[in-house]
Amino acid sequence: MLVETAILKAPPNAILIVDTFAEGSPGANAAGGLYRACGFEPTETWKSDRIVRQRYMRKSASSI
């Protein structure tokens, strides 16, 4: 899977950040489930103009 490969290739002690659909948006449940299954934790929600995004973060695989 692309996300798992990116996690494995990240440098040691890296913090990985993903911005995706916020709750209430089409695709939010699927995207959030995917990132949580890969070890990401939701952090803040942010807005730029009219676009709202949910941020997820995790440490690189070599940091764990």
What is the global morphology?
A: elongated
In the predicted model, the low-confidence regions spanning at least 5 consecutive residues are none
- Sheet of most strands: 3 strands, antiparallel
Count up the domains: 1
Number of DSSP E strands: 3
- What structural category arises from helix and sheet content? alpha+beta
In a few lines, what is going on in this structure?
Helices cover 28% and strands 38% of the residues.
Describe what this molecule looks like in 3D:
- This protein has 64 residues and is α+β, with helices and mostly antiparallel strands.
- It has one domain.
- The protein has a three-stranded antiparallel sheet, covered by helices on one side.
- It is elongated and about 35 Å long.
Could you give the topology of this structure?
Blueprint: H1 2-9, E1 15-21, H2 28-37, E2 41-48, E3 51-59
Antiparallel strand pairs: 1-3, 2-3
Supply database-style keywords.
alpha+beta; 64 residues
